[in-house]
Design a protein that fits this description.
Bound molecules: flavin-adenine dinucleotide
Strand order of the largest sheet: 4-3-6-1-2-5
Low-confidence stretches: none
Shape: elongated
Distance between the termini: 33 Å
Radius of gyration: 25 Å
Helix content: 40-55%
Mean pLDDT: 88
Number of helices: 11
Order of helices and strands: HHHHHHHEEEEEEEHEHEEHEHE
Length: 444
């Protein structure tokens, strides 16, 4: 029932996307049609409009609307944003390429000194789009720092849409009527306005709902648990396994927020825990946060939760390193709810000393019907448990036998190589795709 509802929501938003992407094209055909031109030229223009329409929709995908992200999960929406941008770019690029092939004299439009303004704008938009996409695809290889990339991503995207609007308005052919021009400008402005919503309105709302640091506790595995309390408001209701964007040290306007899974129980909203591994510039500063200091949270987000599968007879969790955090929230919540369903946790860690939540997991075995299996990459001398990596053999050893496998919902969170290997192994052993759920910490 819940699954059908989620599926229907997903299909609904997909249809809305297709409709919104096609709407501007359909509008062009309404009213007095401009005189027809040869097929290749018309096709080239249609592809350009389709690409631009999809490009403007990119803004809504990253505007963090909870209702849109709910059926898919944030990672799927970001993945879609990434993949669909390549499709949109291909369509946009096909527009000039078809023109050049069909009428080679139009190559002169590439000369920005002599070209008319419509061409200057179009050419500049395509070049900037190339920079924008290249920097996103190869950000890590180009060693572009995440926050700087994110700021420039927003700026470049806005400039590209503005230049493209200028291009189609000056080209005039299909936008020959003032109402059509106004409509396209309004359409573009609306989506760019979403960016303003994310960067200005949302931070303003967050400012009014601050949280204060209660304490920062060291954990195993070079991690810290940050405990915060809502200040002057009721806090955040969330499903166990969800995450929030955290801004510390700066105001929510600074565009310096980072996503972290909530690791505490969903039964407590007056106090939230985030368990954060030291990894880079921001995560290394968590330990320096002082009690009483203000932080801001935007959330909850994410679809990685047992609460989306309330009727599952049993759950299995497969965690690697700090990927235990959303799973810990689910285990703590199940314990607080007195849930007695069978649970399995396969937990991969580097070595015994770096097993985050090691002691609490042992205690949870007394409160839950939990089978806990540690898998150590570098086991200590005399270790009799599992060692190495989580692979197909290990999964087959601990997961229910084939016949009962569709009675279990599986949650996976860990480093990307582990997740790829586990997902592939689950498919190989015949676990249906809809029965396992992944949370990836590398959104971008
Ligand atoms: C849904 C989700 C839940 C997460 N939950 C946890 C958790 O519970 N505990 C934990 O320790 N880590 C978690 N992470 C990972 C955490 O967000 C990154 O480790 C952290 O943002 C790295 O920031 P940094 O400046 O310390 O490291 P950097 O060295 O600057 O960044 C390392 C990498 O982290 C990613 N990253 C950096 N900044 C951001 C940002 N603002 N937004 C998105 N990605 C970014 C980039 O891919 C970057 O290349 C989660 C990530 C996601 C997407």
């Amino acid at each position: 029932m819940v699954r059908t509802k989620i599926l229907l929501q997903g299909i609904f938003w997909l249809l809305v996307y297709v409709l919104l992407a096609a709407a501007p094209l359909l509008l062009l055909k309404i009213g007095e049609a401009p005189e027809g031109r040869e097929f290749w030229r018309e096709l080239s223009v249609a592809l350009g409009f389709a690409g631009l329409s999809m490009m403007t929709l990119q803004f809504v995908l990253t505007a963090r609307f909870k209702t849109i992200k709910a059926p898919y999960g944030a990672d799927v929406v970001y993945h879609f944003h990434r993949q669909i941008s390549l499709v949109a770019f291909a369509l946009i690029l096909a527009h000039p390429l078809l023109l050049f092939i069909n009428a080679p004299q139009t190559l002169a439009l590439l000369n920005l000194v002599s070209a008319p303004w419509r061409a200057r704008m179009g050419v500049t938009a395509v070049v900037l789009l190339l920079v924008l996409i290249g920097a996103s695809l190869w950000r890590k290889q180009l060693k572009i720092e995440y926050t700087a990339w994110r700021i420039w991503h927003g700026i470049l995207a806005t400039v590209v849409v503005a230049l493209s609007m200028g291009h189609i308005i000056l080209a005039r052919h299909y936008l020959n009527l003032p109402w059509k021009q106004a409509l396209w400008i309004a359409y573009g402005a609306f989506w760019v306005g979403l960016l303003a919503y994310v960067r200005v309105v949302k931070p303003l709302l967050l400012l009014r709902r601050p949280y204060v640091v209660e304490k920062v506790t060291p954990e195993r595995g070079n991690a810290w648990t940050l405990t915060v309390r809502p200040q002057g408001h009721a806090g955040m209701k969330f499903m166990p396994g969800q995450f929030a964007w955290l801004t510390a040290w700066k105001t929510p306007f600074a565009d310096a927020e980072h996503p972290f899974s909530i690791s505490s129980s969903a039964c407590r909203t007056d106090r939230l825990d985030f368990t954060i591994k030291e990894l880079g510039d921001f995560t290394r500063t968590i330990k320096d946060l002082q009690p009483g200091q203000k932080v801001y949270l935007d959330g909850p987000f994410g679809a990685f939760s047992i609460d989306r599968h309330p009727h599952a007879p049993q759950f299995a969790f497969i965690a690697g390193g700090v990927g235990i955090t959303p799973i810990m929230s689910m285990l703590r919540t199940l314990a607080d709810r007195g849930d007695r369903r069978p649970l399995l946790l396969l937990y991969a860690s580097r070595d015994w000393e770096s097993v985050i939540f090691r002691e609490e997991l042992e205690e949870l075995k007394n409160k839950l019907n939990l089978t806990l299996v540690h898998v150590l990459e570098k086991p200590p001398a005399g270790w009799t448990g599992e060692s190495g990596f989580i692979n197909q053999t290990l999964l087959e050893r601990y997961l229910p036998k084939e016949k009962e496998r569709n009675a279990i919902e599986i949650f996976i969170c860990g480093p990307p190589p582990m997740m790829n290997a586990v997902e592939a192994a689950l498919v190989r052993i015949g676990v249906p795709l809809g029965d396992f759920h992944s949370e990836r910490f590398n959104l971008v």
